[in-house]
Amino acid sequence: MEWKDIYMHRCLQLANQGAGFTAPNPMVGAVLVYENEIIGEGFHRAYGGPHAEVNCFESVLPRHRQFICKSTLYVSLEPCSHYGKTPPCAALVIKQQVPQVVVACRDANSKVNGGGIKMMQDAGILVREGVLEKEALELNRRFFVFHQKKRPYIILKWAETADHKIAKPGPLPIAISNDLTHTWVHQWRAAEAAIMVGSNTVLTDDPYLTTRHWPGNNPLRIVVGNRVQPGKSLHVLDNTVSTWVFNNHLQCEHEKTRFIKLPESPQFIRDVLQYLHGQQVLSVLVEGGQQLLQSFIDAGLWDEARVITNTEMFLNEGIQSPELKYYKNGETADLKNDRIRIYRRL
Ligand SMILES: NC(=O)c1ccc[n+]([C@@H]2O[C@H](COP(=O)([O-])OP(=O)(O)OC[C@H]3O[C@@H](n4cnc5c(N)ncnc54)[C@H](OP(=O)(O)O)[C@@H]3O)[C@@H](O)[C@H]2O)c1
């Protein structure tokens, strides 16, 4: 039976619409094709909701239902084979009597990992794997890192001046990036499960760490450090958004704020990441300051870095930008006087 890349491209496009809503699940898109016509399509819209395959079958018009048993189903991730919040999608595909399924990549979740493909093959369905696999792995890179490395996907982010400073000396905060970039950063935030900062940043800048300039979910706010304590008048402790403060002394919870005590150790960041993995936190955007970012870099615990450089601002003195190691250049974009560079860890 024939198949075409173009329909998998459509699956990936659909899947991407779930960005920021599906974690800790992956983003998935599905398309049902009969004689070169799309007769159904769907994507996983939000965690806990129906999977892409369910939405795809449900979208088929009554007059087209007769063609399902002669169609090809394209799906950007292997259909699941286990009972989670919804029944297994591989069983649904079998029930619908689809003769051919084209899959971009296998599901890294140990509960699936080939189980969905085997289930469908055992039922006599022709399964073709690896179509646009690279693109599908990239789309769900957070999900794959989470399951393969047993930690959240880590994106480092900072704004620097043209002479590589992230802040002035002393306690006064400064704005380095422009308004357009600021809005884009809020879009970045909305796509991640959590945002993290160090205690100096909280005490100096008193940030909100929300997505108020972009529609979408507010990620979990995470603070690392002992000097952010209950009762302090800080935006991150305002209980408007779930906030976790990792420290060495205090374990308590009040409304949306949780203080989490972990032992003092040179491995503190690893311990924090292990805790986050255990709590199904799929990704973290680490927004500074210098000490926190550098400790991720030195431990080799990062996947992507997004560096914003204001090409017209010079400070001469101040806090030096973190220094990346073992990376390759990715995309670059210019927003007025800001240059945004994306790096990937090698
Ligand atoms: N331009 C930008 O993109 C940007 C972004 C954020 C912040 N900033 C600026 O950066 C400055 C703050 O940066 P900073 O480097 O001084 O401080 P920071 O990284 O924000 O905070 C340092 C504190 O965080 C905790 N911490 C960090 N790494 C840790 C680790 N590996 N293990 C345990 N605890 C850890 C410790 O808290 P305790 O001492 O409390 O235990 C440490 O003293 C501010 O001026 C802020 O305005 C700039």
Keywords:
single chain, 346 residues, Cytidine Deaminase, domain 2, Dihydrofolate Reductase, subunit A, 2 domains, ten-stranded mixed β-sheet, five-stranded mixed β-sheet, 26% helix, binds NADP nicotinamide-adenine-dinucleotide phosphate
> How many distinct helices?
10
- Work out the count of structural domains: 2
CATH topology of the largest domain: Dihydrofolate Reductase, subunit A
Strand content range: 25-35%
Query: Using DSSP, what is the number of strands?
Result: 17
Rounded average pLDDT: 96
What are the bound molecules? Answer: NADP nicotinamide-adenine-dinucleotide phosphate
**Low-confidence segments:** none
Cα distance spanning the termini: 39 Å
Kindly provide the radius of gyration, computed on alpha-carbon positions and rounded to a whole number of angstroms: 23 Å
List the secondary-structure elements in sequence, H or E.
Answer: HEEHEHEHEHHEEHEHEEEEHEHEEEE
CATH superfamily of the largest domain: Dihydrofolate Reductase, subunit A
Structural class: alpha/beta
- Quaternary organisation: single chain
CATH class placement of the largest domain: Alpha Beta
| Assigned CATH architecture of the largest domain | 3-Layer(aba) Sandwich
